[in-house]
């Protein structure tokens, strides 16, 4: 059956470079890979749903794996809100973190297929570290969170020994479970994590959990972070745990306007 307004099917059409954008194909591929997995996803289905022929998909992405890698990278980018939404302009650490979590929760829950694809990639591990170089240390989201954490730690509002990656890990554990645990949670406990009431309830759970974690009276371990990253190369950005040391460039340079 032909598409409305189309003289021929996508498979038989003569593609032009501007007929369907690669970005459109990636968006369709994210849903296909999230639903079927890497092995069972079919380029035929992606071509049909995107309107770009398999020939042009091969032209832009090389093969199915090339399209998969680009889909994973795009899924990661979809977890990051636009920069303008991160300009929270809050000098109160608790309120700033609350607003940032609100923005991130909306961004994550608004892209469920991207989350499913990232969960799948964590299981099958199809990509390599080298394919993520373009995204490494480039998140303005963690920069803004680092800023709020340092402000809160310096003012005494937040306890020391917590980094942005600690908070990010806690946050994603809760939000990703909305997709990972949705089916079994509904079957075992009768709780639909996707309905409106529980989506809002999970939002409150996230905010309260993170703020309680940051403001509790648990004694500090003396370490700058619960979690540590692998040793960074000489030309990489400053390691996360170094950001919280007294001589950190971030600590010395972020609050000149405070």
TrEMBL record:
<dbReference type="Pfam" id="PF00440">
    <property type="entry name" value="TetR_N"/>
</dbReference>
<protein>
    <submittedName>
        <fullName>TetR family transcriptional regulator</fullName>
    </submittedName>
</protein>
<keyword id="KW-0238">DNA-binding</keyword>
<feature type="domain" description="HTH tetR-type">
    <location>
        <begin position="19"/>
        <end position="79"/>
    </location>
</feature>
<dbReference type="InterPro" id="IPR009057">
    <property type="entry name" value="Homeodomain-like_sf"/>
</dbReference>
<dbReference type="InterPro" id="IPR001647">
    <property type="entry name" value="HTH_TetR"/>
</dbReference>
<dbReference type="Pfam" id="PF17938">
    <property type="entry name" value="TetR_C_29"/>
</dbReference>
<feature type="DNA-binding region" description="H-T-H motif">
    <location>
        <begin position="42"/>
        <end position="61"/>
    </location>
</feature>
<dbReference type="GO" id="GO:0006355">
    <property type="term" value="P:regulation of DNA-templated transcription"/>
</dbReference>
<dbReference type="InterPro" id="IPR036271">
    <property type="entry name" value="Tet_transcr_reg_TetR-rel_C_sf"/>
</dbReference>
<dbReference type="GO" id="GO:0003677">
    <property type="term" value="F:DNA binding"/>
</dbReference>
<dbReference type="InterPro" id="IPR041474">
    <property type="entry name" value="NicS_C"/>
</dbReference>
<dbReference type="InterPro" id="IPR050109">
    <property type="entry name" value="HTH-type_TetR-like_transc_reg"/>
</dbReference>
């Amino acid at each position: 059956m032909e598409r409305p307004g189309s003289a021929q099917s996508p498979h038989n059409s003569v593609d032009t470079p501007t007929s369907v954008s690669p970005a459109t194909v990636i968006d369709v591929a994210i849903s296909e890979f999230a639903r079927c997995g890497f092995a069972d996803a079919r380029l035929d289905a992606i071509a049909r749903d995107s309107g770009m022929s398999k020939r042009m998909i091969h032209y832009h992405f090389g093969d199915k794996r090339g399209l998969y890698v680009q889909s994973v990278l795009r899924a990661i980018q979809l977890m990051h809100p636009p920069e303008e939404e991160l300009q929270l302009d809050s000098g109160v650490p608790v309120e700033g973190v609350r607003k940032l979590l609100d923005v991130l929760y909306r961004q994550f829950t608004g892209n469920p297929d991207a989350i499913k694809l990232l969960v799948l990639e964590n299981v099958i591990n199809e990509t390599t570290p080298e394919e993520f170089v373009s995204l490494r240390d480039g998140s303005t989201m963690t920069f803004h969170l680092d800023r709020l954490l340092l402000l809160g730690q310096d003012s005494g509002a937040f306890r020391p020994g917590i980094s942005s990656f600690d908070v990010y890990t806690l946050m994603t554990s809760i939000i990703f479970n909305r997709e990972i645990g949705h089916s079994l949670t509904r079957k075992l406990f009768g709780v639909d994590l996707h309905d409106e009431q529980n989506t809002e309830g999970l939002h409150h759970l996230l905010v309260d959990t993170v703020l309680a974690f940051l403001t509790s009276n648990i004694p500090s371990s003396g370490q700058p972070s619960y979690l540590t990253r692998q040793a960074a190369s000489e030309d990489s950005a400053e390691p996360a745990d170094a950001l919280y040391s007294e001589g950190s460039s971030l600590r010395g340079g972020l609050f000149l306007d405070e």
